[in-house]
Amino acid sequence: MNRRLFLKQASLVSVGGLLFPSGMFSACRKDDLFKGSAYQGKVIVVGAGAAGLYAGYLLKSKGIDFTILEAAAYHGGRMGKKSGFADYDIDTGAQWLHGRNSILGDLVAKNKVATTLDTSELSYWFNKQIVDTLPKDPFIFEGKNLPDVSFKDYAVQLGFGDEYNYIIEAIAADQGAAASQISAYWNSKDEENWVAGTEDFKFSKTYFDFIEEYIANPVQSNIVYNTPVKAIDYTNESIQLTDAGNKVWTADKVIVTVPVSILKNNEITFSPLLPATKTEAFSKFGMGAGMKVFLKFSRKFYKPVLYGGQVCAAYVDDSVGKTTNDHVLLAFVMGTQAANLHSLGSDNAITDALIKELDSIYSGQASAAFMASSVHDYTNKPFIKGAYGYSTVGMGNAREVAAQSVNDKLFFAGEAMNVSGHHQTVHGAVESGYKAVLDVLSSVKK
């Protein structure tokens, strides 16, 4: 998805605000911050998503003893790929590189990884017809001093009628939420420091392949799978982590990179209890249902990007940037719409609902050309339970508090813990992993 269609002003922010003040990000790229930071202790990383993998990658580069404990049988978290559905591999999770001014953008450039700029034109399903322009510009959620009300309520305040409801839902879906759930003010405030760039790129292979080759493979031997961490006791100098099989792991420092949904639900018990301010911060995050459904057709009858569906607010041509003879349309579903489809209970029912809507939009062409579907419901994944963290009404400084370390022993990373505007992205998760490792090493020097 073109998640940054409305962040043009963000490109004016200086690079120095990305992770640290005073241009420190450029220093990060040169690895200068790691000089003289040898560490002899043991680090355990909880979670092998993008943040955990990159934290491990950095620890390994410094020769630091570490283990990554991953709850699932695979690594990647909310990233993944599927072969055989089309004549190219599909990204079942994250698939767009949002801008190139980031750690991952540097890695793409350094290794000359093949990507394609996604220039897909946006159309709308509006008043029961497909249009390329709207009477009013719906991208109203940028800028400063927006009210702390939901996207939906803010649109109503500005005079948008019901005919815009599902277009506003599509814009909110880009941020991982329903329009009634995400704060206009805090979402905009969070992204004031976005500096990655406003262009979106797709990988010729998959985003997962890129992460796999350059970040995951080097740490593969350090990952222990099928090991959900259930308790972390940091009472003593040595930290003890207990997994679901009651095995105890010991570390000097712990980097927690699980999705914020797991922290919100208290699925990891901390002893002593985390500060009340921190658990309250976790509770303020939203993380709603999320789903991607790939629909393969015998021919292309659809627009490159269409906003405004009642069942799915955003449909996107998935084959952009791929070498393919197949025709694959992606239904990108978030928030209440994803929860509604999830409640149908089966992949067939979900597919039927989407085809029915596409038939209504494209005059029956969807069912006539339909070949197969592939449903990926992140609400169903037990160690993820949703899409990505978003800013709710009344969010306040919860993101900053949630990302803070505890007693120089526990460090937190993941897309939701990125405090510099790049949350909800893979490169933001990677940046948070970088910061967590820096904080670990800095804590040793104190």
How would you characterize this protein structure?
The chain has 446 residues and is an alpha/beta fold. The protein has a domain of 196 residues: 3-Layer(bba) Sandwich (FAD/NAD(P)-binding domain), CATH 3.50.50. The chain has 14 helices and 23 strands. The chain has a 7-stranded mixed beta sheet. A hairpin with a 5-residue loop joins β11 and β12. α2 crosses α14. The protein is globular, with a radius of gyration of 21 Å. The N terminus is likely disordered.
Describe the main β-sheet briefly. 7 strands, mixed
Count of DSSP strands: 23
- Head-to-tail CA distance between termini: 43 Å
For the largest beta sheet, what order do the strands appear in spatially? 8-7-18-19-20-17-21
Mean pLDDT: 91
CATH topology of the domain at 24-77 and 206-286 and 385-445: FAD/NAD(P)-binding domain
Give the oligomer, counting copies of the same chain as homo and different chains as hetero.
single chain
CATH architecture of the domain at 24-77 and 206-286 and 385-445: 3-Layer(bba) Sandwich
Low-confidence stretches: 3-31
Measured by DSSP, the beta-strand proportion falls in 15-25%
**What is the CATH superfamily label of the domain at 24-77 and 206-286 and 385-445?**
FAD/NAD(P)-binding domain
What percent of the residues sit in helical stretches (DSSP H or I)? 25-40%
What's the level 1 CATH class of the domain at 24-77 and 206-286 and 385-445? Alpha Beta
Structural class: alpha/beta
Rg measurement, Å:
21 Å
User: Helical stretch count?
Assistant: 14
